[in-house]
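Worked example

This section walks through a single chain of length 209. The input is the sequence exactly as stored; nothing has been trimmed or padded.
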Amino acid sequence: MEKLSLIFGAILSVLIGVESSAQWRVTDFPHPVYQAKQCGRKEASWICDPNGIISTQDADAIQQTVKETYDSTQCPCPECAANNQGYVIMVAIMPRMYRIVNRSANVQDVLYDARVYSYYLSQFWNVTTCDTNTLLLYSKDDDITYVMTWRNARRLLNDSKVQTITLNNRHYFDDSSNQEMIGKGLRNMVKNISEVFKEKAPRRVSSKK
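Given that input, the structure is written out below as tokens.
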């Protein structure tokens, strides 16, 4: 029995090791609207955490902020404003992104890969018509958080604001084994992004009766 326990423990350790270092190709990463269960969600949302890196409670809180942002902001294009659409914040959380361009561990190379990965993922996820999307990518083993903004989103959330938000929340991600801190960091980043859109593009209340 003791020998079987040791064997089982060894197999479990291997499986855990594989899980923690799992890489996601951008073409394989699930879509949170159409593949909710694969994203660890019960229903369609804009957050995908297929490996359960953060808690369900943190994921729920992030989705609530994302929904509030969409419902309380005004899309700048006539075609989506007419349908009461707002700004969309998308969140992708993974153990490790499959490196598309570089293999180097140099910070600048990892950042460049995160930019390319975020660009393609936001293309695959896009369901809006007015370039109001913002994608927050967190790759745990790459130790990277990256914010990709589309054209109209970038007019409000410019690169300077993105840099400030990223740097102000960097300390949450210092320990990649601390699920609580990672969840708190992502919640706070989404909150900070949301505040920018709510302030600069509040939904106009119709005067029609």
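What to look for: The first strand starts at residue 23 and ends at 24.
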